Amino acid sequence: MKKKIVLILSIFHLLFQENTIIKSFFDNYINLKSAEFTFRILTIQNNEVKFESNGEFLIKNDKYKISTDEIIYYYNDNLLYSIIKDDKEINIYDMSKLEMSNDNILFKSINPKELIVFLKKHYSYELIPNQKNETYTLFFTNDSKPDYEVIFNSKFEIKSIKIINKKSTFSNVLFFENIKTDIEIDNDKLEINIESYKDFFINQL
Question: Is the Cβ–Cβ distance between 183 and 34 less than 8 Å?
């Protein structure tokens, strides 16, 4: 009888511990005020890397900027600016009218705050501890959307996000490095000046 009680208590303890970790992870990103980090994106097919891109991400409250060698994305007040350097083109999207789709899901996954809010609302999830390297995998599933594997450490820093496209042989993996959260970010570093792109074609979508 005592063994059964101990077993039941142990199960409850593990469940409570898992729920605490999951809640802390969600709170850490849903309440994120500012962050800066670098990232690397790999597009993989049949274990072979087909595409690779590197960049930097900045967020301050509801504004954020994603910078890569080819494109700068800047989001503010429901408007997303896509600055394509080689084409000298700026596309402006009203994000209040766009839903998360397979076309923009990779881009939106770079913003951990927006992604975690979306996953928590629309997905079921399961926590899997990785005892060998002291990390956790939060596995998100949804019948009609790609699955996600989010790996984070004991400080709730996201190390990688894998997007699993169930209807395709392609998958995308994002790796995050040099993560700094709740820091002071200068507005000059975050914001863009449209006036400095006078020779660019502007397309309001």
Answer: yes
- Residue 140 contacts residue 122 (beta carbons within 8 Å): no
Give the separation between CA 56 and CA 73, rounded to whole angstroms: 11
Q: What is the pTM of this model?
A: 0.80
Q: What is the CA radius of gyration of the chain?
A: 19
- Measured CA to CA in angstroms, residue 2 lies from 15, 70, 182 at distances of 20, 64, 47
Do 95 and 79 touch, CB atoms closer than 8 A? Answer: yes
One digit per residue, pLDDT tens: the chain, 205 residues? 544 444 343 433 344 467 889 999 999 998 889 999 999 988 888 888 888 889 999 999 888 999 988 889 998 888 889 899 889 999 888 877 766 554 455 566 788 888 898 899 889 999 998 878 789 999 999 887 788 999 999 899 999 999 888 878 888 899 999 988 889 998 888 888 888 888 999 988 7
